[in-house]
């Protein structure tokens, strides 16, 4: 099957487990930024679901923005070329910014975006990611808020895709290796 039903794939983290971690991170962020305003910047498209949930778990004043970067493709990962397709809409100078990602893998996307955002001179810049795959890192970068740290497995759901499918799957599930997982 080219695109097997998500229900046939093993659950890595259930929607309940995800909700618990998102609530905990939201609480932590609300404490860390108490009395301040923050800007959540989501990286399209994978981060959309996590950002939507995380934002609603945060009680401090928050606005959204979104960036889009060119996908360098899994097979050409070593080229490391990341290009900005869509920039932020509103200035972030002097603001407290949190970059929001679904997954921190090689680190190429976030290290590029962090460098770019720092040029705008935010008051502070942190990173929140739903998943972290530390063993895949090609460039040194760490997230400040991580829901789950996982070994190298191909996962889908909760915003994460395989050939643009499965982003709307509620749980985070393991893509079988014979389909295209790696
Ligand atoms: C995925 C993921 C992160 C990035 C992480 O995005 O959503 O943005 O790759 O990989 P890295 O740490 O190796 O850079 P993708 O390019 O698949 O685009 P998408 O979010 O639209 O699925
Ligand atoms: Mn992405
Ligand atoms: Mg993708």
Automatic annotation (TrEMBL):
Broad EC category: transferase
Annotated InterPro entries: HGPRT, Hxn_phspho_trans, PRTase-like, PRTase_dom
Coiled-coil features, chain-numbered ranges: none
Keyword tRNA-binding on entry: no
Catalytic activity annotation: GMP + diphosphate = guanine + 5-phospho-alpha-D-ribose 1-diphosphate; IMP + diphosphate = hypoxanthine + 5-phospho-alpha-D-ribose 1-diphosphate
Ranges for domain Phosphoribosyltransferase: 12-162
Subcellular location as annotated: Cytoplasm
One Gene Ontology cellular component: cytosol
EC number: 2.4.2.8
Main location: cytoplasm
Biological process terms in GO annotation: GMP salvage; guanine salvage; hypoxanthine metabolic process; IMP salvage; purine ribonucleoside salvage
Family: Belongs to the purine/pyrimidine phosphoribosyltransferase family.
Name of the protein this chain belongs to: Hypoxanthine phosphoribosyltransferase
Organism of origin: Granulicella arctica
